[in-house]
Structures are given as structure tokens and as C-alpha cells.
Amino acid sequence: MALIVQKYGGTSVGDIERIKNVASRVVQTYNRGNDVVVVVSAMSGETDRLINLARQMTPSPSEREYDVLVSTGEQVSVALLSMALHNIGVDAVSFLGHQVKIFTDSAFSKARITKIETEELQKALRERKIAIVAGFQGVDEDNNITTLGRGGSDTTAVALAAALNAEVCEIYTDVEGVYTTDPAICPDARKLKKISYDEMLEMASLGAKVLQTRSVEFAKKYGVRVLVLSSFSQNPGTLVTKEDEEMEQVVVSGVTYNKNEAKVTIIKVPDKPGTASKVFGPISEANIVVDMIIQNASEDGSTDLTFTVPETDLKKALEIVKKTARDIGAKDVAVDENIAKISIVGVGMRSHAGVASKMFRVLSDEGINIMMISTSEIKISCVINSKYTELAVRVLHKAFELDKIEVTEE
Ligand code: ADP
Ligand code: ASP
Ligand code: MG
User: Which of 123, 270, 271, 377 sits at 20 to 30 Å (Cα–Cα) from 43?
Assistant: First the structure.
């Protein structure tokens, strides 16, 4: 008998029939003698609907009340799934984040899990109950409800799997696993049999929303075996696991895109020591994560400083940057929201040369201008005009022969 954590995403619990389908899958695992903890997301579209309600009420809602509101979607799904299980005669009990307890810091709307108490869950499991836990939410030290950022139910599931020392964390979604790129925009995308934690971490943080980045960080840190698979089929999914030699032979294993960043340029920043820290200090204090940064060469004692931030933080970032620009005597601040970051990821890049130049050539052959570039050991990212996103993904996918990767045998 093993302890298995299963997570079902929004589409998988999108309506009553689908919730019944989830219940019957959960029961199959339970009836094999396993202990089962299930994490569920809000029904598809629900979190967006709630965010929209907040926007209609006020352009700048209280961060605390925003989380009280957007966390409610998951409360609906845990209750409905418990009822579905009761209907088929199985004992199940629902838990909200604060009932588990899943403790987080107080960074509303992007809180990080700090500690999980498992006593209540263990008690339910001892009584042979299926525990259904609301994803995406936690509670801070002051008893406020917090949420973990979009896609946060993945992190709830992996963190619970780590805390409970589960045998595996199964992430059920609307595709059959992790693909070489988003199958929604590239029909040639291939399902990977397995992927290393590091590659998955890069892919997630570079836009492959199939797993939330934090969930992969947890998985890597605690060695949780994560299996990504579909709640609509019985086909084998993708195992996220430790790197092996086979993986290193593939130069590029994935192409990702992210359209949710904006580019900010501070024009004519005086070129003297301390300026960068004056610009980025207040932004990081506001808990905004700056991604790529470019500083042009100084010509007349001043330079342009360009960086990207998540679109959701743009308003807040601009307020700060405009003030800093005035303080340091810069000329102006310009914004471009029509950008996309296209990345190629692969552990094999460590040992293969010429990957970056090939990427630049492929984009230039299509007449796509590269605005910013950043690299790490196992990824290369380029910022381009967002209207070329799909084209760039497809040509890179083809150029690096990802369409030729062997399809997983079913
Ligand atoms: P869930 O609601 O189950 O959490 P998400 O919508 O968050 O599902 O994530 C699944 C989606 O991620 C897929 O429908 C797919 O379009 C998208 N996706 C992006 N990149 C990839 C990738 N490399 N592999 C698989 N899916 C991807
Ligand atoms: N319901 C939340 C969202 O839509 C969390 C999740 O689905 O993982 O972002
Ligand atoms: Mg998701």
C-alpha cells in the first residue's frame, strides 16, 4: 500500500460530469489499497471570473480581500468532489488550506508555502478516508487566507507529496504529459517520456504552464517523483525525475514562449556608479521579479536601461520606475507590452556548441528581429515582437528536430 497524491486541474473538474469522472479515477487508485490525497483546482474559468469581479469592483483591490475572493473557486471543487465520492459510497473529506494547515508567507496573490502540518490529513487517512485538499491556497501566520499565484494548485500537490512522503505526485491535466512545446500552438509537439527536474524548471519558468515553477522547485528539492498525465485517457504520461545520460544526449528538449511580460526602457540614464541599484532596489522591495536586463553602451555619458517584468506587475513597476527616473535625472520611460520571450531548453546544451547561433539564424531567416537575449547553462531566450510567437515556436521546434523525437509508445 502506498500514499499517492493526485492533482486535478481546472479542465478536469470543469463540470459535474467531469467531477464524477475524477471521482471514479480516484476510487480506482483507492480500491487498489492506496492512501489517496487529492488536490483540486477551481472549475475551469472560475478563477478568471473571480479576478474579473474584483476588477469590476475596484482597479486596486485590497490584496488581502483579493485572495479571500480568488481562493473561493477551490472551495467549490473540493466540496463537489467529496460529494461525488460519497455518491459512490466512498468516505471522503474536504480540507481548505487553513484546515490542513498549509502555512505561507504573507505575499498575497503570490505567497510561498513555508510549512505544512499533516496531522489532520494523516488522521483522515488512518480512518481510510480520501482527503480532498483545496489547491492554490494557504494561510499566513496572522490567519489571513493567501493564494500561491496562477497555477498554484500544482505547488500545493507537490508540497503535500513532499510533506507526506508520498510515493508519487500525479498531476492530471488536459494534455497527456509534458510535450516538446505547447501542443495548443504546435501540432508537431511530441510527448516526452521523461524530463529532468532542471529542464522542467526552466520550461515552467519560461512559460510552459503545464506545471507551476514553484511545484518543480519543490519536486527537485525533496526528490518528489512527479508524473504529468491526462485525466481524460489512460495513456502513460511524462515522468519528471533526476537527470540521466540519455537526457544529456538530446541538445534541445523543449521550446517555450511567454507572452505575459512587458519591456520597460529608462531612456538616457546617467552612466555612473550606483544607478542600477537605485533603479532595481525599489522594484525588488515591492516584490516584483525583474527578468531580463540590458544596459546599452554609454555614448554621451548616458545609457538606456531595458528590462522585463511580468505584465501583472507592470502598473506597480511603472509607478516606481517613473519616480526613480525623475530622481536620477533620466530622460524618459518607455513601455512595450507587445513582446514575447521565446526559449529553447535542454541539458544537452552544456556539452554542445553552436546552439545559440543556430537559434538566432533560424529567427533571422524568418525576418524576426531579436530585441533581447539571455542565456543560462541549459537555456537560451530571445525577446521578440509577440505577433511572431507562434511562427517562432514552430520554426525552432522544426529546426531542432523536436518533431522527430520518438513518440512515447502507448
Ligand atoms: P490545469 O488546469 O490542468 O492545471 P493548465 O492549463 O494549467 O492545466 O496546463 C495545461 C496546459 O499547458 C496545456 O493545455 C497546454 O496547452 C499548456 N502547455 C504549455 N506548454 C506545454 C508543454 N510543453 N507541454 C504540455 N502542455 C503545455
Ligand atoms: N485556480 C488557480 C488558477 O486558475 C490555481 C490552479 O488552477 O492551479 O490559477
Ligand atoms: Mg495549471
Answer: 123
